[in-house]
Design a protein that fits this description.
- The chain has 90 residues and is of the alpha+beta class.
- It has a two-stranded antiparallel sheet.
- The radius of gyration is 13 Å and the shape is globular.
- The two termini are 13 Å apart.
């Protein structure tokens, strides 16, 4: 999440950081990992799920993220033929 939003050399940066997608201050910096971990554990984290942004035009933050299955992620792509919000950035 941080790498694809912040590292211009990352393979997918142009689809994340290059589009202005950022990780919120709460999940960054000194206490960022702890704050993210706490959010994750309180919001349904499971090792079979991946983080998903609800609104693909907004960044990673507690109010815009959820845990999703691979199938849900596939259906949430911008290039999907299914209904929106079509957020996939690759």
């Amino acid at each position: 999440m941080h790498t694809r939003c912040e590292n211009k050399n990352h393979n997918h940066y142009k689809h994340y950081g290059g589009r202005g997608i950022k990780v919120c201050n709460r999940w960054s910096g000194k206490d960022g990992f702890f704050n993210f971990y706490k959010w994750a554990m309180n919001n349904g984290y499971d090792s079979n799920l991946t983080i998903d942004r609800i609104d693909c035009e907004k960044g990673y933050c507690p109010t815009n993220c959820r845990w999703a299955t691979t199938k849900e992620q596939i259906n949430n792509r911008r290039n999907s033929r299914n209904y929106g919000p079509f957020c996939y950035e690759t």
